[in-house]
Amino acid sequence: MVTVVELLSLLLVSVLWGCTNPLLKRGTEGIENVTKNNRVSQLLAEVKFLFLNLKYLVPFLLNQSGSLVYYYTLSTTELSLAVPVANSLTFLFTLLTGKLLGEEFGGKQAVAGMFLTMAGITLCVISSIDDKDTGTQNMTQAVH
């Protein structure tokens, strides 16, 4: 059975991933101005630009902490539930955070997509709960 802790962990992962995506995008602004002579120097200069830039580094570290929570959650949660819930909620949090930061939202189609995503997540969670309950009932009936 899916526990509240597992669902909250997936929600935390989605918040950490989704809310940091627009911030990472903003943190990379200006990287196109970094130019060097060869590819290796260019790569090193871009890495230096990113990791000395707090507008990029803080969201990056938060995003990576979401990955740590995700890998821990995968060890206890069904993959058929964890992957779609985390990824789809990440998309929703990315859209909402982007909107709060003034980015284009996508209009009515984005809103419809969010509602369909939430309906799909709800079905995944209900299905996971029902599967576990049915399995428990079948085991109980077999014992009696």
The first-to-last residue Cα distance is 22 Å
Determine Rg (CA atoms, Å): 20 Å
Mean pLDDT: 87
* Proportion of residues in helical segments: over 70%
Task: Tell how many strands the DSSP assignment holds.
Answer: 0
Major sheet description: none
Number of helices: 5
Which structural class is indicated by helix and strand composition?
mainly alpha
Shape: globular
Strand content: under 5%
Low-confidence stretches: 136-142
- One letter per element, helices H and strands E, the order comes to HHHHH
Structure, explained:
The structure is a single chain. This protein has 144 residues and is an all-alpha fold. Helix content is 81%, strand content 0%. The protein is globular, with a radius of gyration of 20 Å. It starts with a helix and ends with a helix. Residues 136-142 have low confidence and may be disordered.
Keywords:
single chain, 144 residues, disordered C terminus, mainly alpha
Q: Care to give the gist of this entry?
A:
The protein is mostly helical. It contains five helices and no strands. Helix 1 runs antiparallel to helix 3, helix 1 packs across helix 4 and helix 4 runs antiparallel to helix 5.
List the helices and strands and how they pair.
Elements lengths: L3 H24 L11 H13 L2 H21 L4 H22 L6 H37 L1
